[in-house]
Prior knowledge:
Helices cover 21% and strands 42% of the residues. By secondary structure, it is of the alpha+beta class. The strands form 2 sheets. It has a 5-stranded mixed β-sheet with strand order 2-8-7-4-5, with no helix packed on it. Strand 7 and strand 8 (132-143) form a beta hairpin. The longest helix is centred in the first third of the chain and has 28 residues, at 12-39. Mean pLDDT is 82; it is low at 1-5 and 34-47.
Amino acid sequence: xxxxxxxxxxxxxxxxxxxxxxxxxxxxxxxxxxxxxxxxxxxxxxxxxxxxxxxxxxxxxxxxxxxxxxxxxxxxxxxxxxxxxxxxxxxxxxxxxxxxxxxxxxxxxxxxxxxxxxxxxxxxxxxxxxxxxxxxxxxxxxxxxxxxx
Length: 149
Protein backbone atom coordinates (compact mmCIF):
# COMPACT_ATOMS: atom_id res chain seq x y z
CA UNK A 1 0.00 0.00 0.00
CA UNK A 2 2.84 2.45 0.76
CA UNK A 3 4.14 2.24 -2.81
CA UNK A 4 0.81 3.57 -4.07
CA UNK A 5 0.68 6.29 -1.50
CA UNK A 6 4.21 7.49 -2.22
CA UNK A 7 3.63 8.37 -5.89
CA UNK A 8 2.91 12.08 -5.42
CA UNK A 9 6.20 13.35 -6.85
CA UNK A 10 6.47 10.79 -9.65
CA UNK A 11 5.50 11.88 -13.14
CA UNK A 12 3.00 9.79 -15.07
CA UNK A 13 5.51 9.40 -17.91
CA UNK A 14 8.16 7.88 -15.59
CA UNK A 15 5.56 5.58 -14.03
CA UNK A 16 4.33 4.44 -17.45
CA UNK A 17 7.93 3.80 -18.55
CA UNK A 18 8.59 1.53 -15.52
CA UNK A 19 5.35 -0.38 -16.09
CA UNK A 20 6.17 -0.84 -19.79
CA UNK A 21 9.64 -2.21 -18.94
CA UNK A 22 8.16 -4.65 -16.42
CA UNK A 23 5.54 -5.88 -18.91
CA UNK A 24 8.22 -6.26 -21.62
CA UNK A 25 10.39 -8.35 -19.28
CA UNK A 26 7.43 -10.57 -18.35
CA UNK A 27 6.49 -10.96 -22.01
CA UNK A 28 10.04 -11.98 -22.98
CA UNK A 29 10.05 -14.48 -20.10
CA UNK A 30 6.75 -16.01 -21.20
CA UNK A 31 7.96 -16.24 -24.81
CA UNK A 32 11.14 -17.99 -23.64
CA UNK A 33 9.18 -20.46 -21.51
CA UNK A 34 6.80 -21.15 -24.39
CA UNK A 35 9.72 -21.76 -26.76
CA UNK A 36 11.37 -24.15 -24.32
CA UNK A 37 8.14 -26.12 -23.95
CA UNK A 38 7.57 -26.17 -27.72
CA UNK A 39 11.08 -27.42 -28.54
CA UNK A 40 11.48 -29.79 -25.61
CA UNK A 41 11.65 -33.50 -26.46
CA UNK A 42 8.33 -35.32 -26.34
CA UNK A 43 7.33 -36.92 -23.08
CA UNK A 44 6.89 -40.67 -22.71
CA UNK A 45 3.12 -40.28 -22.47
CA UNK A 46 1.66 -42.65 -25.01
CA UNK A 47 5.04 -44.33 -25.56
CA UNK A 48 5.03 -48.11 -25.45
CA UNK A 49 6.64 -49.64 -22.41
CA UNK A 50 8.39 -52.93 -23.16
CA UNK A 51 7.94 -54.13 -19.56
CA UNK A 52 5.26 -53.22 -17.00
CA UNK A 53 4.79 -54.50 -13.46
CA UNK A 54 1.72 -54.47 -11.19
CA UNK A 55 1.88 -55.91 -7.67
CA UNK A 56 -1.13 -56.26 -5.40
CA UNK A 57 -1.70 -55.59 -2.66
CA UNK A 58 0.81 -52.77 -2.16
CA UNK A 59 0.36 -53.07 1.62
CA UNK A 60 -0.52 -56.34 3.40
CA UNK A 61 -0.29 -58.14 6.73
CA UNK A 62 2.12 -61.06 7.18
CA UNK A 63 2.03 -63.77 6.06
CA UNK A 64 1.15 -62.10 2.76
CA UNK A 65 0.28 -63.47 -0.65
CA UNK A 66 1.38 -61.13 -3.43
CA UNK A 67 0.04 -61.30 -6.97
CA UNK A 68 2.48 -60.01 -9.56
CA UNK A 69 1.36 -59.28 -13.12
CA UNK A 70 4.04 -58.59 -15.69
CA UNK A 71 3.20 -57.34 -19.16
CA UNK A 72 5.77 -57.40 -21.96
CA UNK A 73 5.76 -55.93 -25.42
CA UNK A 74 5.99 -58.68 -28.05
CA UNK A 75 9.52 -58.89 -29.43
CA UNK A 76 11.52 -61.66 -31.06
CA UNK A 77 14.46 -60.92 -28.72
CA UNK A 78 12.55 -61.76 -25.50
CA UNK A 79 14.02 -64.95 -24.02
CA UNK A 80 13.54 -64.95 -20.23
CA UNK A 81 11.90 -63.06 -17.40
CA UNK A 82 13.07 -63.02 -13.79
CA UNK A 83 10.68 -61.92 -11.02
CA UNK A 84 12.14 -61.22 -7.56
CA UNK A 85 10.58 -60.36 -4.19
CA UNK A 86 13.33 -59.22 -1.84
CA UNK A 87 13.42 -57.69 1.63
CA UNK A 88 16.21 -57.24 4.16
CA UNK A 89 15.73 -60.78 5.53
CA UNK A 90 13.93 -62.65 2.74
CA UNK A 91 14.44 -63.48 -0.93
CA UNK A 92 12.28 -65.37 -3.38
CA UNK A 93 12.46 -65.47 -7.17
CA UNK A 94 10.91 -67.11 -10.18
CA UNK A 95 12.26 -67.27 -13.72
CA UNK A 96 10.46 -68.32 -16.88
CA UNK A 97 11.60 -68.83 -20.44
CA UNK A 98 9.99 -66.75 -23.17
CA UNK A 99 9.59 -67.75 -26.81
CA UNK A 100 10.28 -64.38 -28.40
CA UNK A 101 7.32 -62.55 -29.88
CA UNK A 102 5.00 -65.56 -29.43
CA UNK A 103 5.34 -65.44 -25.61
CA UNK A 104 2.23 -64.45 -23.64
CA UNK A 105 1.96 -60.69 -23.22
CA UNK A 106 0.85 -60.92 -19.58
CA UNK A 107 2.17 -63.39 -17.03
CA UNK A 108 0.87 -63.84 -13.48
CA UNK A 109 3.08 -64.86 -10.55
CA UNK A 110 2.20 -65.46 -6.92
CA UNK A 111 4.52 -65.15 -3.97
CA UNK A 112 2.84 -66.91 -1.02
CA UNK A 113 3.28 -66.52 2.75
CA UNK A 114 5.80 -63.69 2.67
CA UNK A 115 6.97 -62.60 6.15
CA UNK A 116 6.86 -58.97 7.25
CA UNK A 117 9.25 -56.52 5.65
CA UNK A 118 9.59 -53.85 3.01
CA UNK A 119 9.96 -55.67 -0.31
CA UNK A 120 11.28 -54.58 -3.64
CA UNK A 121 9.46 -56.61 -6.26
CA UNK A 122 11.28 -56.45 -9.58
CA UNK A 123 10.99 -57.89 -13.05
CA UNK A 124 13.90 -58.22 -15.47
CA UNK A 125 13.33 -59.01 -19.13
CA UNK A 126 16.34 -60.72 -20.73
CA UNK A 127 17.27 -60.94 -24.39
CA UNK A 128 18.68 -63.75 -26.52
CA UNK A 129 22.25 -63.36 -25.19
CA UNK A 130 21.04 -63.15 -21.58
CA UNK A 131 21.44 -59.37 -21.50
CA UNK A 132 18.84 -57.37 -19.55
CA UNK A 133 16.51 -55.57 -21.96
CA UNK A 134 14.36 -53.86 -19.31
CA UNK A 135 13.90 -53.74 -15.55
CA UNK A 136 11.00 -52.43 -13.47
CA UNK A 137 10.42 -52.31 -9.70
CA UNK A 138 7.68 -51.71 -7.20
CA UNK A 139 7.88 -51.43 -3.42
CA UNK A 140 5.50 -53.44 -1.23
CA UNK A 141 5.09 -53.22 2.55
CA UNK A 142 4.21 -56.43 4.41
CA UNK A 143 3.39 -55.45 7.97
CA UNK A 144 3.54 -57.56 11.11
CA UNK A 145 0.10 -58.84 12.01
CA UNK A 146 -1.44 -57.17 15.06
CA UNK A 147 -2.72 -60.54 16.37
CA UNK A 148 0.73 -61.69 17.49
CA UNK A 149 1.05 -64.49 14.91
